[in-house]
Amino acid sequence: MLKSNIAVGLDIGTTKVCVVVAEKDEIGKLNVLGKGRANSDGLQRATVVNINKTVAAIRAAVADAERESSIRIQAVNVGISGAHVHCIHSTSEISINQTGIVNESDVKRFLEKAKTNIRYLDIDNEIIHVIPQEFIVDDQDGLLDPIGMAGTTMKGSAYIVVGLRTKIHNIRQCVEKAGLAISAITFEPVASGMAVMKEREKKSGVVVIDIGGGTTEVAIYIDGAIRYSEVIRVAANDITHDIAHGVRALYEVAEDLKIKYGFAYSKLSGDDEELLIEGIEGRPQKSVPKSTLTMIIEARMMEILELVRDSIKRSSYYEYLNAGAILTGGGSLLPGTEELAHDILALDIRIGYPEGVSGGIKGSVNNPMYATVMGLVAHTFQNNLSEKQVFGHTAPVISAEQPPVAKDETVPPEPNVAGKKIVDRMKRFWDNL
């Protein structure tokens, strides 16, 4: 059995599965006891498309983490993302209990009413999180934690994260088939933000941009709370495919070229040189100018960052990002990405590494590609703490209902028509706010 001060995060990504086992020390820092990583091709754009391949990758990553930590992993906080996940603003208002002092019961009633106030949530969707944004007790506004405040009425807003029930079920099924229990399901932009943000950035206004393999995730925090998020279906894998097509090479060779010689900004790429490329199936080697590789990468990275910029503009929070942007995820590691992002987004930029890690095997996770999984660990500890303190700002609300198990191990794609209907409903909701 896992000790109460040990937590496990499971990040099931498009290109890799990461597992981290960590404990929390007496000053609240995370000591990493073990980690595991396995290549994965069971997902596309953060959505499960092959259950058996995904299960195999989870088992491989868990086995590595267990060997390194000498701990048997039983329960995990698993991340979830994808274009099927949507976020809805909801308002709520309740009368405070007879004592006139806000307590746990009041907060729970407030959150329950926020859930029931959601419009356009049909049986195809499931609530993942209910995240309070602001409480107002009588005329005292801007409260993040209202417990102990005196008043007669409490109102405010909550940020509700919902996803397609079938796709959430497929994630659950993969984890359970791998022999694990799920302690929580966490929206990955929430986890990434928790891992890389500093408290002053979160209060001042910051956007966290996680460039993963299959998706790019955007999350905006203003005044200490998440205000907006979006999952963009273009990411680092698209760069690799562009390279493979542009230089006519195998995907694996293109990925190696990206990692070894890739540069995201031609203005800073330096001297040109000829790069040797392995021939396909016995064909002779060939060469390509490094400038050509840079041009291919820069074009796709510009598209990703322009889509991010458009997302931020749509949020109406661009002018409030006093702390600028944090780039994280494996895609942020390409040299020149920080400078290109600064030029396109016109914001102050820094690369986000996992915060709050001390001791253990810290160096092994000191990398933006581990931001999400470290955030899942931190989120687990926050949930445990919130149970003792009554209230946690990002505690997940997970439905107990289970949809029917699909017969096929390979998951068929969702029909475009159904997806469009959901998107249209969400757009109408946002327009009516």
Characterization of this structure:
There is one protein chain. With 433 residues, the chain is an alpha/beta fold. The protein has two domains: 1-84 and 161-197 and 355-433, Nucleotidyltransferase, domain 5 (2-Layer Sandwich), CATH 3.30.420; 198-353, 2-Layer Sandwich (Nucleotidyltransferase, domain 5), CATH 3.30.420.40. The chain is 36% helix and 28% strand. It is built from eleven helices and 19 strands. The protein has helices at 51-69, 104-116, 165-177, 188-196, 199-204, 236-247, 251-261, 290-315, 337-345, 371-389, 416-432, and strands spanning 6-12, 16-24, 30-39, 43-44, 47-48, 75-80, 86-95, 125-137, 140-143, 153-164, 181-187, 206-211, 216-222, 225-232, 274-277, 286-289, 325-328, 349-351, 357-360. The protein has a six-stranded mixed sheet, with helices on both faces. Helix 6 (236-247) packs antiparallel against helix 8 (290-315). The radius of gyration is 22 Å and the shape is globular. It starts with 5 loop residues before the first strand and ends with a helix. Residues 385-433 have low confidence and may be disordered.
